[in-house]
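Work Package 3 (structural annotation) set out to generate three-dimensional models for the target panel prioritized at the project kickoff. During this period the team completed the workflow that converts sequence records into discrete structure tokens, so that structures can be stored uniformly alongside our sequence database. As a representative example, we reproduce one entry of 310 residues exactly as it appears in the project archive.
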Amino acid sequence: MRGRLRRLPRRKAAVTDDEASMSLIAHLRELRNRVGLALIGIAVGMTVAFIFYDQIIEFLKAPYCDLPTTIRGSFGVSSEDDCSLLIFDVLSNLTLRLKVALIAGLVLSAPWWLYQLWSFITPGLKRNEKRYALSFVAASSLLFAAGGALAYLTLANGLRLLLGLSGEGIQPVLGATEYLGFVTQLLLAFGIAFEVPLLGVMLNIVGILSYDVLRKSRRWLLFLTFVLAALITPTTDPFTMLALAIPMSILFELAIQFARINDKRRARKEAAAGWAEVDDDEASPLDARPSTIDDEPTVLDRPAKHDATT
């Protein structure tokens, strides 16, 4: 059959994107600037955390101090209000303050350095994908905060269970470095774990991960979620593991449902554009006839299935 010729609409003037056409040196310079801005934000966050160090320590100690003295020990002091963590060497005070300031600074400045990261990546994305950068930064910050908040709420029950296993006649003595390292590890584990389902959403948005793949992998995702929760929770108790695994499973299911809706929307858009039935390996039916530069380009439509003129 002979295809019909269709005249393409006049193209608009190309919009140049200086970031997308940068040279290698320019990209390295851009990377340097973004890293510098991210480090400045982290330094500001560390400074704020260093100033409010005492308040941060009291906040992190609260789940431990809320435990009865029969579990956490009183160190010979009868007051229920006494809650002490021990330091075993001279330099621990300095290293502890710097460690807490660094972790708190990273958390406080997370929206800023995440934005710098995406600002460096977005020139390589399509125009319709760039708009998701701010959404990703906001969603990742909220999910990390939600994970940290959940870890903080479950911390007291985990400590109660673990410290209560010492038995009669044994009084636990906690060092400040060990305890705060344990708490920050738990908070970071929950916060980072809550980011994993968001990664699946972003991969679906850019077209790498489809709903069909997620749907077929649902059982494996559920199984691996519980395995991951068991591995990354430092308390090793089943209560904390379930507190992490169950919300992660819900987030994964929400990500799968988002992929289902997004894939349906993408399929409707492709069908409306007329590309739904085109195979990915099929070559474009271009018009190979020579033409002058000033002529508008023409292309051959796909062969008509029912053409009475042939």
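The beta strands are 5-7, 298-300.
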